Amino acid sequence: MKDQLIHIDLEVEGMTCANCALGITRFLEQKGLKEVYVNFATNEVRFATDTDTVQMKDVIQGIEGLGYTVIQSDIQKTSGRDKTERKLIFSALFTIPLLLAMFLPFPLLHNPYFQLAICLPVYILGFLHFGKSALSSLKTGVPNMDVLIFIGSTAAFVYSLTGTLLQLGHDYQFYETAATIITLVLLGNVIEHRSVQRTTTAIRELQQLQPEKARRIFFDLMGDGKTTEEVLVSELQKNDLVQVNDGDKIPLDGIIKEGTAEIDESMITGESIPVVKSLRDTVIGGTIVTGGQLTIEVTHTHSNGFLQNIIQLVKDAQMKKPSVQRLADKIAAWFVPAVVSIALLTFLLSWLAFDITLGHSILRAIAVLVIACPCAMGLATPTAVMVGLGRSVKKGILIKGAVTMEELARTEVLVFDKTGTLTDGKFQIRKTDVAPGYESVLPALVASLEQYSSHPLAQSLVAYFNGISEETVNITDVKETKGVGISGNWEGRKVMMGNKSIVADTDLQPADVYVTVDGAWVGSVWLSDTIKPEAADAISYFRRQGITTILLSGDTEEKCRSVAERLRITTTHSGKRPDEKLEIVRQLSAQQKVTMVGDGINDSPALAAASIGVSMSTASKAAIQSAQVVLLDGDLEKLKRAHQLSKMTLATIKQNLFWAFFYNVIAIPIAAAGLLNPMIAALSMAFSDVVVIGNSLRLRTRKIR
């Protein structure tokens, strides 16, 4: 289809600040590409395109024409990093003698021609390294940080070269300044790159969870048994059978065909206690068999399994910027031109108005150029978000982006569904009532029909009635109506299960579930459910935070009131259909920031209408797609942690941005006043990013109360 977009991911090295990312963004948008996202901190470039209108070769050549490198192999990635480190070592070897001249009296070190000789290799390296990037950024109309470094180092070198050639004396020698600026900025780039790597460990760890190889089973048609062959996981296809032994990682999502085993699912749930799984149970790729042996039928391939979906959602989450970062991006767009203007004004005022010597006026302007740091503003949000998201994933919490964190941290109203959310969804059958003539067939009808529903209530009914069923029935043409019930065809008759709306007899005793055949009542079921053990503590926490808690359920008033009273929830809405839930959430959202917590299936309309939707469903693809926050094992304690982590991450972003703005607002005037040597200014700039990254890394170990 022409209007169907394909998303392309590239890894691009060479970006040093937010303006680099902005320049690539502008280039890709001019090529007609859509949904462009560029993250200079992680080297990620993503865009959507119609394959009929884009040539990837042109895109890659265009990006590289701007002075960046598109990484197409791990070898190329490694060589790119090593190249920057080699440049740093090379420049440092020549810069150290220049710095020693400031402290040692050896005549050779002070000879201007000797200084020129050892500064020249460093300057040429810097000219090529920073000059190419600076020129490319000017082509895009978005000058980057390398423009400042290039102008500053060039000004110091040209001034010194002029003084040497004209023999103007020691006051015209600033070779150490030119070399030191280049060396320290390269040092900052290396440190920044290594530090940012520490913030992206979550995705790398998730990618490493999936094994590279698996034991595929195939049957020997000429022999009597089956054999296994070791293959790459990427080669496995749907319906392939694989053997997983004790201690192995499960290669892909699948269904158990043979065996029983204990499986460590901590990567999904955050809980380290293994779960026992056996015939027909589903398993997830990347989880570990800690005891037993299994034969598994593959249900999802390498590209669309649960783990791959999680990895992609974490990547998607990093793309979304909160309002505070969008402001920073706007400032970064005009940051470099503003700094160049301030540096030029500093030079003119120093030389012409304050009668400062030409050399020292230039040094002041250079200090302004090299101390300014737009990188810190660009790193403020992505580094904090990557650490926050990484920590949440390890705890079994999937938060879809910084915008979600921002909204969750500012929640004013928390709306809970009941079944499967506040209660454990494991219902007990209190009693049943059956119409005469249906005593033996009713259990089979209920079990056969409800097996097609994913609702927690249906799972309990199937488990109970399968245990007492003595007959077998065949149900076809099954249809589920959310908020009403489920129906099917049984030997030409319509059998239906649901709430009271499906029965015409108003004299029936109120029950939880009714069964009808061709519209006539044939049975009723009464249920009881239990409140999750962690629910009371979670509700108490949100109440202490000043957040209003509301119970919104399709269950009976009696059951809702009982749960609300035990959890001290003040507002209750019972007996609500999905459309009624949607309307209530819309009304609340019109006035306050609302977070809706539901099972991700029946409550999907209300989840979509709320500021933040939280799914309590366990590890299903539908649940993951239905909400902005997914608690992968339905533990309400994780909802509390998600709220706390969101507040901590948002606070960290604000701290980072405050530092970035504060640093530049204070440092630039100090440099303009001549109170900073350009070399000290370059050192300050190089390490200003480290402060931001270090503050973000604190999120990895900060205690969640």
Which key terms come to mind for this protein?
705 residues; 26 strands; alpha+beta; single chain
Instruction: State the separation between the terminal residues, measured CA to CA.
Output: 51 Å
Classify the secondary structure makeup into a structural class: alpha+beta
Q: Number of DSSP strands?
A: 26
Count of DSSP H/I helices: 24
For the biggest β-sheet, the strand order reads: 14-26-25-24-15-22-23
Quaternary structure annotation: single chain
Radius of gyration equals 32 Å
Question: Summary?
Answer:
By secondary structure, this protein is α+β, with helices and mostly antiparallel strands. The relative contact order is 0.10.
Helices and strands, with pairings:
Blueprint: E1 6-13, H1 18-30, E2 34-39, E3 44-49, H2 56-65, E4 69-71, H3 74-100, H4 107-110, H5 112-140, H6 145-165, H7 175-199, H8 201-209, E5 213-219, E6 226-232, E7 241-244, E8 254-258, E9 261-264, H9 266-269, E10 275-277, E11 282-283, E12 288-292, E13 294-298, H10 306-319, H11 323-353, H12 358-371, H13 375-394, E14 397-399, H14 402-409, E15 413-416, H15 418-422, E16 428-434, H16 442-450, H17 456-468, E17 476-481, E18 485-490, E19 493-498, E20 513-517, E21 520-528, H18 535-544, E22 548-552, H19 557-567, E23 571-573, H20 578-589, E24 594-598, H21 604-609, E25 612-615, H22 621-626, E26 629-631, H23 636-672, H24 678-697
Parallel strand pairs: 15-22, 15-24, 22-23, 24-25, 25-26
Antiparallel strand pairs: 1-3, 1-4, 2-3, 5-6, 5-7, 7-13, 8-11, 8-13, 9-10, 9-12, 14-26, 16-21, 17-18, 18-19, 19-20, 20-21
Helix pairs in contact: 3-5, 3-7, 5-6, 5-7, 6-7, 6-12, 7-24, 8-10, 10-13, 11-12, 11-13, 11-23, 12-23, 12-24, 13-23, 13-24, 14-23, 16-17, 18-23, 23-24
